[in-house]
Amino acid sequence: MFTRLSRENAAEGKLILDAAFITDYLPYAPENHVKVYICGLAAAQGLSGATDIARLAAACGTDEESVLEAFSYWEENGLVCVHRAENVYVEYLPVIPAAKQIRKYSKEKFRGFNDQLHAMFPERSFLPAEYNEYYYCMDTLHMEVEAMLIIIGYCKRIKGEKIHSAYILKVARNLADEGCTTYAAVSEKINEYDFLYNEVTAVLKALKLKRRYEPEDSRLYTKWVRSYGFDSPTVMHVAAAVKRGGMERLDSLLTKYHELRLMGSEAIDEYEAHRKQQYDTMGGIVRNLGLSYGSLDTLVETYLSKWQSLGFTDETLLTIASYCLSANTRTLEGMNGTVASFHRKGLISASDIDEYVACGKKVAELLQSAGIACSLDAGERALFEKWKRVWSMSDELIEKAASSAVGKERPVLYINKLLADWFDGGIKTATEAESFKPAPKAAPAKTYSADELNAMFEELNDDKL
Known about the structure:
Layout: E1 3-5, H1 7-10, H2 19-25, H3 31-44, H4 53-60, H5 64-76, E2 80-83, E3 89-92, H6 111-120, H7 128-141, H8 145-159, H9 165-177, H10 183-195, H11 197-206, H12 215-228, H13 232-241, H14 246-259, H15 265-288, H16 297-309, H17 314-326, H18 332-345, H19 350-369, H20 378-390, H21 395-405, H22 411-424, H23 430-435, H24 450-464
Parallel strand pairs: 1-3
Antiparallel strand pairs: 2-3
Helix pairs in contact: 3-4, 3-5, 6-8, 7-9, 8-9, 8-10, 10-12, 11-13, 12-14, 15-16, 15-17, 17-18, 17-19, 19-20, 21-22
């Protein structure tokens, strides 16, 4: 048989057209070569009568010489092995993705490329590994030899005679990513880069970069003005504001502004001013809580933006942070709970918070004057607020309750119990409190055991009888 499967493929017992062949090889191979590969694969599996080269050529609608040429092509790509013994046959090998192929390249195939490379760098010696890097790049990117040569010439013009191959290959890959793999496409893109040279160098100057222009700079600039839609003055405006990070930082900023639909200098400045104010406020909150953070980015997104959306101003949030510190709540998550509590109570402004804090301090002073110590923690403040804001207890009643609580094991809770009884009884003055006696509580409902319940049910049943 003229074609056969390798042992690995034959063991499968079925014909498979590998996905890697379809994605990595088929799109770039001549049409006739693809037909030969598929027809030969079918014959190797015994799915056709093409048992020799003549019949395979007939099945493909071509001649024997073209069949051998096609198999030589696939052999170079590592997909088949042509055994040239007395009886020539072709062995189909497992398909390895192009990126994982370790290939051997024919010097004859790239002789013209080698001659042109030497002509561009007559004083330079090239090692075999460097040649192979160029071959591999052209092969895997499916880039024309003429296209690679014009890239090398362009890079030499920018960087000089001592340019390293790694730089050239990076430029080639970037161009290939933009779909430029032919001589015509690469020439057009390089002409575009040259046309933008003055604008790009102006951006580099605005960034205060002292390095030389590079093709990557033009590629980024083209993305900003053509893909993103920024005009040149806006790019220059943003570049002038970049303190460090160069083109990479500028690219990051313009990408963010593009995603936020901020297309003009005025909109960008307004956004950045708001952002700076947020960072200043978040920094103040952190300091008021006695904390320290290296970066505020996550904190702004997680906490500040949420609090501001509830209607709290920067002034109010700074006040709340100071309040939290005095109430021994020294975490952002703890402050988050306090903010939520204030929001539920309708305490939104800084004056509301100040009034709330003053109320707590006033009650604490009343209790302390009676000899009752107060911690003013979150629990006590909540009680004091209830006494004053919810029950509307006068200072006179609170002082009287405090004097009654002296010596008790838990005086604050004792005061809370007294005031609750007075509130339920409608007591408004200390005189009324003197003669007030809480209504006796209803006796607790009797509970029954399981045996008692069963006996009751038995009595009910007897009555029915």
